[in-house]
Amino acid sequence: MALSAACSRDAGDADPQGDAAASAGAADGNVTISGDDSIAERLTWRAPRVVLPEGDDDLAATRARAQVALESGDLDLGVNSAIPLYLAILGRDGDDRGARAGLERALQDLLAQGDQALAGAGDDITALRRAQQVAAVARSLRPADEAVREYLAKVDRAEQLWELNRSAEGELRAGRLGEDGGGALARVHEVLALSEGQPRAMQTLAAIESALIRRAEDAAAKGDFDDADAWIAHAAKVREDSATIPDARERVAIMRRARVLALRDEAMAALHGADGIERARARLAQILNLAAPGDPAVVELRERIDLAVHYGNFRPGQRFTDGAGGGRGPQMVVVPHGGFTMGAADDDRDAEDSEKPSRNLRFDRGFALSQHEVTVAEFRRFVDATGHRSRAERRGFSMAYDERSGNFVRRSKADWRTDFSGKVAEGALPVVHVSARDAQAYADWLASVTGQRYRLPSEAEFEYALRAGGSGQYPWGDGAPPAGAGNLTGDKDRSPGGRSWSNAFDDYDDGHWGPAPVGSFSANAFGLHDLAGNVSEWVADCWHDSYRRAPADGAAWVNPGCRTQVVRGGAWASSPVQTRSAWRAPAPVDNTNARVGFRVARDI
Q1: Are the C-beta atoms of 171 and 190 separated by less than 8 Å?
Q2: Per the domain annotation, does 567 fall within a domain?
Q3: Within the chain, how many helices (H) and strands (E) appear?
Q4: Is 451 found in the same domain as 536?
């Protein structure tokens, strides 16, 4: 007698290799189920044919055999099983009360065996087949019995769960996880709707979650963290309060952080090569898509790109020297990029027309200036290396200070080796008695021996560095200079012979008459010494009577063959008016005297 069609399965679906072998090839996740991949056709049970002897004594022996089989649990599988034996006896004698009682007990025990098989039928095809066999036998014996009907319903449910689980595992192996509907997740949810917490379905659910996490990690490994986050979000919906999700998020976060740091390192390395800034910016754009706001790597890289844009491989305020002709060049200071207003203010009553019109300038890239004026010792290394003969040497004189008259006079044999009065100069003093061409020759030599772009500063660069972020009438601001502002003319200064200045800053004394050794006074806000005093300095610009049509980028304003250049910055003998930040003066390029020296600039 066949079971109902609703409980039947196609025997052609059977896979002799079993689920364990099939699930090993799954693309994502891992589910292992024992037994076949499908359910065999439901068995139609026919009682084994039992041949009974003719005598009553032999029938009693058969009854005893059936009792032994019943007690041992051998109920239905062969000719010596309890149910076939009891059925054979009843076929001979339908009123055999012992056989009827034994058959009734055998049916109860059979249903108990079926329930036991059903307990393991969720992931064991052998157990499910046994449950089906029990169903076939029970239905053959008592199709209308309520207990049998209840058992048959449980077998139908077990078969349905098996098929749904089998379908879910097939979808999983095919990679159809169902994160957007359908697929393995939909089948598992059908199972759990029928049997909450069903172990095989829960195992598949864990495998789906694992597969989604693996996809997140694969996406992260490729640098696609948007996809990684999306896969993690799908995984988080699979099992409520799953302990694996925080760990997965942490692993992806670690991969994200590693990617951010790798991109940062690539950007840092790129800055040293051709098109480095653009390549670094491209890496920064990638990092911004990955990193959280305020990420230290972003801050660091932005600062480094900004430094590279404005300073190359340097930093603002950095001090350095370059090797020069077997020694070292002047100590340089990196001047920060920025803007300022160049020239005299409209309300400056001491201003000359040549200091106007004031104009706003901006340096988008920093530059370096020597920390102080070029010294006698530094100039000597240049002369020794090149044999250069300065203008004062060739001419045989320069303008030096005369203590007896208190004036500047022509003094023979005064040149770069001598001080402001024509005596032999100490090496730490700023070199004076040099012309603009001497200064340019020194800068050209430095550029040649260092391979760097040394030059005289432009007039705009000098005033920008002199002001160092200030906007007052003087480099220190407005009004009288503070103590130690620089080597300036003060009414308390006294010459070796007791002379004093007739036009000087009130109540000021710097302790020097004549140039002081470089660096004797405090540096300004940019870390530069003596821009506001000591000696005035040659700059690269040719003289023009005003700033009209001057270069808008702060570069030197140079005309071919110009015979007059600009001198900037107050000196030890300058009046207060000549110490103003905007002060400028023309000087023939061959002029030499005890008040003018120079410093060098370098592109970075």
Answers
A1: no
A2: yes
A3: 16, 15
A4: yes
